[in-house]
Amino acid sequence: MSVETILIVGGGISGITTAVEAAEVGYNTVLVEKNPYLGGRAAQLNKYFPKLCPPYCGLEMNFRRIKPNPKITVYTMTEVESVSGQEGNYSVRLKVSPRFVNEKCTACNACAEACPAERSNEFNFGMDKTKAAYLPHVMSYPMRYVIDRNACKDNSCDKCVKACKYNAIDMNMKPQTIEMKVGSIVYATGWNPYDASRMDNLGYGRVKNVITNMMMERLAAPNGPTGGKLLRPSDNKEVKKVVFVQCAGSRDQNHLNYCSSICCMASLKQATYVREKVKDSQVVVAYIDLRAPGKYEEFLNKVQADQNVKLVKGKVAKIEEDKSTGGVIVEFEDVEGGGKTHERADMAVLATGMEPCVKTNSMLSFEENGFINGGTAAGIYSTGVAKRPSDVTTSIQDATGMALKSIQSLVRS
Amino acid sequence: MADEKKIGVYLCTDCGIGEALNVDELEAVAKKEFKVPVCKQHPNLCSNEGVQIIKDDLNNGEVNKIVIAACSQRVNNEVFNFDPLTYVTERVNLREQVVWTAPKGEDKEGTQLMAADYLRMGITRVQKSEVPIPKLADVNRTVLVVGGGVTGLTAALESSQAGYKVVLVEKAQELGGWAKKMYRVFPTKPPFAEIEQPTIGVKIDAVKKDGNITVHTGTTIASIDGGPGEYKVTIDRNGLQETFDAGSIVLAAGWKPYNASKLGHLGYGKHRNVVTNLEFEQNVAKTGGKVTRPSDGKPAKNVVFLQCAGQRDKDHVPYCSTVCCNVSLKQAKYVRESDPDAGAFIVYKDMRTVGLYENFYKSAQDDEGIFLTKGEILGLKEESDGSLVVEIDNQLLGRKMKIKADILVLATGMVSSMVPDEMSVNNLTPEYIGKMVQRETSDGVLEALEPESLILNLKYRQGPEMPHLKWGFPDSHFICFPYETRRTGIYSAGAVRHPMDAVQATADATGAALKAIQCMELTAQGRAVHPRTWDRTYPEIRFESCTQCRRCTVECPFGAYNEKSDGTPLDFPSRCRRCGVCMGACPQRVISFRDYSVDMISAMIKSIEVPDEGTFVLGFVCENDAYPAFDMVGLNRIAMNTNFRFIPLRCLGGLNLVWIADALSRGIDGILLLGCKYGDDYQCHYVKGSQMANERLGKVQETLDRLMLESERVEQVQLAINEWDKLPGILAEFSKKIEDIGDNPYKGF
């Protein structure tokens, strides 16, 4: 008799989808996420292409489905330590890192107000700071604060503890181990942006106004470091002209051998951020191929129709700082116009690709780029970008299917 | 039990509520105005001790309707969690939406009045609310799969492997669809570099052997009646009909090639050796891998592939079919395998080998006999021997060139099977595919849409097929909930709903099978399907007051109602998504849910104490997006005016015009409707809800005229969940506008 529980590793949009969809069929699901909140990369996006709608809208609806459903158990700040057994009966050990804030937290913000220490805000890719006592982001689920102990002033500081009237802060919280039995496991461990500093020629880290596409999402977001204003990092000046550099790492044998599948649409979407937020702004997109598959073509047409958006076929060779303006000089080959050319702009956005987060695990089989094909044993599956580079809706499609595959494991064993 | 209406009000004084508000006065509102039997304050209601107080009252039988005046209904759900089939629970949001948005220092009185009104509305709501009595259904757990191609076969097998019965209906004489007609397939597995032998035969055999699956080939669907859990499906095989029960449906009717006869400008139909990619494939399959000229059967030495033939083209197929780049790469490899000295030339707009298919593209680039260039066709000539001269603009080299070719292959695209042969994909009637006809009505001859029966033949009042948004693809809640179509229990999958390859179609079919199974299980428990899966209420109709106006049957975004011959709605609760759009549409107010009704909201409006002076605004807000946005205003401690009150609705489409009249006759000066974006890029979780509200608003003029009020007093604003920063400005601006119009003359009456 199989254990009637499915473990889902990763609480981004794919993992949430698998957990919720399987639970709504009637199976118990355990959703494990290493961040202190659910939503993963989707939560960091300002808008989705091609509808230009906010990811929070769909996430909120998923959270609404999670909250009243007793069949879903969520563990944040949790990672899988070990897995053993076989389909229908896996033993798993989870490690829960201390949040230092317990369930008594009312999200009143008193701890953050009292906290004297700051930390780099990784949710905004380090573009601003939070207090050491912080709420990961404004629509966090669960709506509960976290203490970053590494960022505390010193070990004896207890200002937040004193500020909390609810005894919600416990500085003595220890890592916890949870053991459980599950019938099947779905890895929805998602992706990291490719490390842009590895592409020396593109100047990231050296030229101040070169940022990545994920940083651009945070700049444009109303709860981002600039409150949604497109200010360039060097001097907080609003950007008037932006160059998007496609395939920054992707389709490149020295970096990522594959196409990350979303970056063309992401840059076209971000072109609309620039055009909407800054009057008379200009956008240049330098691409190898414009990949707006299927119905997305219509979105490409819409962006293309904007006179102030220039789409140029050509791979960017080099980005340097424009010493006279503090901006950037982007050198590339204009394939159709013929010959080497360059664009001066306030900022360059690198369309960096997606790399799977989990690249080694004895329970999993990987293809050559590190994407997870599935388990080495039956009853283990992968989904979302952990499996293949894909956009949100394709990930959700696949994650819904993986809910069924993981249910089949319980049914047959 | 619940009908004894023992209301308990629990006021939390924590998180700044106690400091900003006089909670004793709120207690007085509950006790004196509403005479609630139990009203208690607690300094930290979400603590174990706080919750225990409520539990004790429940267990002692003193309370069966709970009003928690504390934080937002979006938080502490696991704490304030009381059996929803036994107790009615209402959350009054004093924290995020009153105290945390209160203007600093000044206007303490305004904040207090606001809190009191929200408490009044909360108590009124529970007074009018009853616990649901779930409509448990004896559900038939059989999935009907329509279409026997790769998508349908997959949906059938995956459902069966989860333990469900399947009936698969395919109109062709054999299973396999287009996949069976392929000579080889482009890569389906890592490293995605080489062409593969088709495996469709394995899938067909598995389906045939599966004891859970019944297959009907050469069969079409004559009709589908009923709803999820209780479909009556009638199939037709050569005129012989058979009827059976099904619980849910996967629509996997697939695609058809674009009609190449419209591509005369590319030489199709004119020149003997111009073929579509599908014809090329079939020729190669016939010869067992030899690439030969259609005109004379001679081996082909040079083959040109023209990508996006009639695609990405507003005059033909406006979208990209996603598969054609990979198909042409595959077929270029046929050319090379057929004759190592032969050459293939692919002319593209953009090479769209997305994701790991980059490897496949690379493997073609590594072959010196395959030439690839961005370009456009400039001219085409046929020589006497049937050879072609293709002139192209080679945009990589920046010059024109002529290629002598034995065959020109047009990479034509995919059209959804929902599009009738005689219709153009870019010129279909909106929402329901059909024809515009002249119809005699009591108002004279009017042009009306007559939807066409194509595949499913649903006996639904709104039309026999799935509504489409564009280009004939059945609409679903793209992006976040791609399977949520506008027909509950019917899930479309594969190329019928979006151009896709076999790998994607396989994944899509598996997801659709999950949704079909889930729908049957939720229906059996009397629950709604997505998104309100927690909801066990359903619309109840007071038929004796129905005037057969048909608004509910027309406006339901999901086609949940049929009509009796006199126009009375015939309800199918299992088709219903519980959005309440029908409730909002009904001028007679005959449709209600046990915990949500026109009368309830009217009573809530009437419970508001409208101040005698100053502009006062009532907002109806979507509870899924605008309401959380309002919470975010609080979480960010952005101060707002206190001259408004909000009432959350399941969907703004539930707005009933009687509430506008109620509010205005109460002296409320202006009414603001905050709902989701509508139109092609709609964000409404119920697809048409916010649009319906807007259409209804067009009719509000009548009400306002009757009351002799200005139409500007009612306004709808489209607000996304992340636009909380705009909310204070929207309110201030609206308030200013109303102030300029002047007081509602009914104020004080």
UniProtKB/TrEMBL annotation, chain A:
Molecular function via GO: 4 iron, 4 sulfur cluster binding; metal ion binding; oxidoreductase activity
SUPFAM superfamilies associated with the record: FAD/NAD(P)-binding domain (SSF51905)
Top-level taxon of origin: Bacteria
Residue span, 4Fe-4S ferredoxin-type domain: 96-126, 143-174
Pfam families: FAD_oxidored, Fer4
Key words, A-Z: 4Fe-4S, FAD, Flavoprotein, Iron, Iron-sulfur, Metal-binding, Oxidoreductase
Cofactor list: FAD
InterPro entries: 4Fe4S_Fe-S-bd, 4Fe4S_Fe_S_CS, FAD/NAD-bd_sf, HdrA-like
Entry similarity comment: Belongs to the HdrA family.
UniProt name for this protein: CoB--CoM heterodisulfide reductase iron-sulfur subunit A family protein
Annotated source species: Chlorobaculum thiosulfatiphilum (Chlorobium limicola f.sp. thiosulfatophilum)
Automatic annotation (TrEMBL), chain B:
GO molecular function terms listed in the Swiss-Prot or TrEMBL record: 4 iron, 4 sulfur cluster binding; metal ion binding; oxidoreductase activity
One Pfam family from the record: FlpD
Swiss-Prot/TrEMBL cofactor(s): FAD
Entries under InterPro entries matching the protein: 4Fe4S_Fe-S-bd, 4Fe4S_Fe_S_CS, FAD/NAD-bd_sf, FAD/NAD-binding_dom, HdrA-like, MvhD/FlpD
Keywords: 4Fe-4S, FAD, Flavoprotein, Iron, Iron-sulfur, Metal-binding, Oxidoreductase
Database matches in Gene3D superfamilies: 3.30.70.20, NAD(P)-binding Rossmann-like Domain
Domain 4Fe-4S ferredoxin-type: 537-566, 567-596
Homology family: Belongs to the HdrA family.
Official protein name in the record: FAD-dependent oxidoreductase
